[in-house]
């Protein structure tokens, strides 16, 4: 698989209703001995239980799709070999056969594991299967390899049944749950062994090559050996372009340069041409454009790599991705994200971690919990290069509204710091409000009053509004322009007709109206801030008075006790 990605046809494996050949897949599961092994453990008066049948149905469905995926990849591989120009019958090498086998079993696990999770608890798995014999399994023809993998699953059930008490539980429902959970554990351990071989072993170059091709199997889209949802790698990014960024140019250009340096990473040699600091840190008040700048850099990075056939991913770290109520789970998930989704990806990777300061409590607080210590340890490993190498394969943009971290954390994260200010000049503000936020309404906003925009820019500079506040002003102007009732003919018109009616009914606003919206917004928020400051002051005074009164009461009680002790009364 050496041709350019632009010349590679997509590999699409779309199952019809009812699957490709479920009868053949059912025979495959039966021949492997998995059904027999499962039946021995959960034998019911009339055969299998409902739960064991659902597990077998999941195995049949996964085997059906994995078989088709493996055969499709094998056919594509033969086409790539034949494309070299030789008329001889193509014959895959041992490594190429292992590549097809590894992808087949990867699909098997990716389909089977979530279906087993729906019918029984997901097991905690520590470690992976031993690699002895794995390569011999992968070089087998697709059907034989699948059959052998399912046979190993049955043998694993039998071995674990002799070691663990769950297999001999007196209640049938306990035995069947144990059996399905143990089956799931084997699938996850096999996936771990395959990951080791495909991410860091001899099959890694095949994963890099596969990532340059569009591969969709059922509902899964593959980037190399890693399955994602069909929406693609940039699903977390907002549709922001570089032209949408106003101000923050130094920060933006530093991010773009870092993105290009990471795109230049040599995936075959597994080293980058430059030594670089992979972390870009931005500090700025809320609404200054930190998030939109990071998303614009992410989109640029993906487009830049796509145009050059470089497999790439951009990951947005959200608190819901890793924060857990279970002790030590948060740090473990952070490590998993960076080891598997970032560094374990076959191509290059960019990361955006917003509000990173909220994830790490200060060690100087004196009451640092075990969970917070583990989080700090994880992030230190990321930025020190002890968790994943700082070798140019990845970069990360992170930001914060305030410097709430201690010195040790700041020194690691803010190695390449930037102050992000957003728009600062009158021209910046005018470009943001008029051209970016209200660009589609230009015919209705201060049409023919170009000279007046200088006053608008000066007013915005004086108000020192953030980019987010300017967006609120723009939304108020938009609401005024498009404040009309829909006529009946609107609902009978097609899309173009509806656009024409909106254009006809929209109202105009002049420079004075724009200035008025800015003034109203500033006045409202100034009053709100003053009210909030007054309420905060009153709360603090009330708290101080309460403390003083409590102190006086305590002093009075102590004095009374002393008098009583002296007088004996």
TrEMBL record:
InterPro entries registered for this protein in UniProt: ATPase_AAA_core, P-loop_NTPase
> What residue stretches are annotated with the ATPase AAA-type core domain?
284-414
Entry-linked Pfam families: AAA (PF00004)
List the protein's name: AAA family ATPase
